[in-house]
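Students often ask why we bother encoding 3D structure as a string. The short answer is that it lets us treat folding as translation between two languages. Here is a chain of 358 residues written in the first language.
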Amino acid sequence: MQHIIRPHAEADFAHEIAALIETDRHPRPEGWRLSPWAVVTYLMGGTAGETPIEPKYIGNRRLIEIAVATLATDRALLLLGVPGTAKTWVSEHLAAAISGDSTLLVQGTAGLNEEALRYGWNYARLIAEGPSENALVPSPVMTAMQRGHIARIEELTRIPADVQDALITLMSEKTLPIPELNTEVQAIRGFNLIATANDRDRGVNELSAALRRRFNTVVLPLPATLDEEITIVQSRVEALGRTLDLPSDASTVAEIRRLVTIFRELRSGKTTDGKEKLKSPSATLSTAEAISVVHQGQALATHFGDGVLSAHDLAAGLTGAIVKDPGADSAVWQEYLETVVKRRADWQDLYRACKDLG
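And here it is in the second language, the structure alphabet:
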């Protein structure tokens, strides 16, 4: 039997969604599988009868309530935040809970054209038959309008500005004109858009004022506390480990705590006790990057070590995550090692492992 590396949310958590559907007694907007209350429970965790609901987002519950309430209106939702704040994760689970389908996705890139947001053509049929419904190739957004589902647009600000504006009529009128066929597609109830964006990457295309007005924006912050971020990293690492058969043990939590402490100190520019100021590297050092470092360390420990995650296994991924610009970030990282890591008695193994890498 072949195993899928990353199942879609609606497949991976189908038992939770089914339990919530069975026990949900709250009013549901037309076209929704769950009520807004049940969608928030699915995202934030709880119970559905005797079925435990695993938290998908660890953070401010009110932010998720605002996001879900937005989607219950005719306003589209924009999830904004620095890289690694779970924007994509939240959008996928919102679509899975509301529509039962998180696959209607447009990935924003600098080379995206308008067809990806509206519709395209099967050019062989177009040449043979001329413009017709059979020759039309609907975009994920058009399909969502026809089905009454949620469409997702990732990295909206990476899309060229003139292509972004193709969404304005669609979002205002809930209608997609097809002038070649002298017709249009009108969205049915349940349709809406979730877009994600960040303004930390280079080459970002600002949203026009007209387009921004058509979104309700929810800013997803980095985790507020050390323990909250540790919980997020630990839960995601355990889930990824199960998928790829990478064992986890008690030592993993201790290493995660050290890693997250380093990321938070370098992000904030000061040590956790506030006594020493630090230089910050150019890297974002997000929660997602911390998850990646631990995951890589687990793979090294499993395949080239004794199976127990150690400082030696973390060091390579840690250095790679922090030193994105060798010219500037190397000096920042070396200074941190000498002034912070070296002085902590219980971090000597991590100091030696990082120094051994040069």
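Translate back mentally: The two ends are 44 Å apart (CA to CA). Keep this in mind for the problem set.
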